[in-house]
Amino acid sequence: MVDLYQAAIGRQAAVEPDEEPVAAHQAALEAARTARLNAERLPRAVLTLVIVLLPAAVMFRKRGRELTWLLGGAVLYQVLFNFRYAVLDGRTYSLSSVVSADELILYCAVTALIAIVVSWLISSLGVKAFRCGPRRAGELALGLTFVAVYLLSLPVLWSFMLNGALVTWTLPHMGSLFLAFIALIQILLVAVLGPVLIELTALIAKFAAREARKQGG
User: Fold this and answer.
1) Is 0.85 topped by the overall pTM?
2) What is the dihedral of CA 137, 140, 144, 146, to 10 degrees?
C-alpha cells in the first residue's frame, strides 16, 4: 500500500520501525505527501513573494501622509467587512455558512458596498481629496481602490501558494481556499465600485471648487 501510494505521487519515505505498524505506515504516507507538497509549493512561494513585493515596493516609494490614509482606509474596509461577517452575523470562514452561491454573492456585495463607502469617505476626508482638483481627487480614490484590492489579493495569493491554481492530486487546504474565494468575490466588487467612487470623488471636488470660487468672488 505504501509503495503504491509513493509510486503514484512520485515521492519516497521510509517506514520507520515501530511497535504500531499502522502508525508507522501512516507516518510514511504523510511524509511522502508532505515532501511532494513542499516541492510543488517552493516555486509558487517564490512567484507569490515577487507578486506581493512589487506593489509593496511601489507603495513604499510613495509613502507619506496620503498613502497612510489610503492604507488606513483599505484596512478599515477589511475590518468593517469581517466585523459584519464574523461578529454581527456570526458566519464562519467555511462552507458551513454558505446557503447558496447567490446568497453568498449578494451578502458579500452588500457588505462590501457598505464597507468600501465608509472607508472611502473617511480616507477621502483624511487626505482632503474634496479640496483637491477633480483629477487629483480621482487619483486618490483610485489609490484607495488599488490598495484595497492589493490587501484583498493577499489571501488569494496565500491559497495559490498552498494549493496551486487548480485542484490536482490532493485535496486543497479548505480554510485558505474559502478565504481566497470570498476575497475574490470582494476583489470583483471593489473593482466594479472603484470607478464609481473615482467619478464621485472627482465630481464632489469639482463642485467644492466651484463653490469656493463663488464665495471667493
Assistant:
1) yes
2) 120
